[in-house]
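Now produce a polypeptide, keeping tokens residue-aligned:
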Amino acid sequence: MLKTHKYTLLWMIWTIVVICLSLISSNEIPKPPRIPYADKIAHFGFYFGYTCLFVLSFSKETRWIQPIKKVYLWAFITALVLGATMEFLQGALTTTRSADPIDMLFNAFGTIVALLFIAKYKELFKEYEEIVFNEETFCQISEQKNSEKDEFIWFLNFDDESVEEGYNLLMDIDEAYDRSISEEERRKRGNPYGFTDTLITISYFYNVSYIFMSKENGIILKYYGTDEGWKWKVLANSFDEFIDKLYVIPKEKKKLSEEEEKELREFVENLLE
């Protein structure tokens, strides 16, 4: 839990700290060194940190909000709402603090600078965008390893474009299914975007195949095109199991023929001349 949701926990702790420091009596806060505009710098820092941790949490760990542009939008909205709420409560609930529009301005400034920072240095916020397998890699779905029956895995990609492609496909699937059922079945179904809200893309190959992971139970699913249409296939019951089921078939190392070896030597000698 701690390892897989460290940014989410940090974001929650950071938010609680911001709320506590915003509402605590100013008489109970130790007097800091006399630094010009120290309180404005603190407001900037609080919301810069809040925004960065929000993006890390919701784009890398929980993935409840997709695509990444929506993560940025919600980071901005929630930071503004939090800042405005804290200023209102300072004026309404405390006697030593008061609502200050300039504080709200620095809150928003910290949020905007954080989003610009993330946009410019977004590689710092992505551990992996793509995992490419050097050897022929398969996911075992048969009882015994059999490359003719098992699933060939080209690569795993986690970049924004791939995630968004999968997100758009899932929306199309949900909307097509919603149109195909009766009004009564729609009411029973409840959420019309069941696939979109529960699956996240971990591999996308040029509209030929997609691999998704369930946010609810970790099941790994492949959605792929065939001559008979698009089909679903369960690859593993969790991401750990999926990784355990991967195996490679090393490429055969062919020995050069005498003619090929002679041509290669001549090519190298010509380069050295």
User: Anything to note?
Assistant: Residues 6-125 form one domain. The chain has a mean pLDDT of 81. Residues 52 and 117 are 9 Å apart (CA to CA).
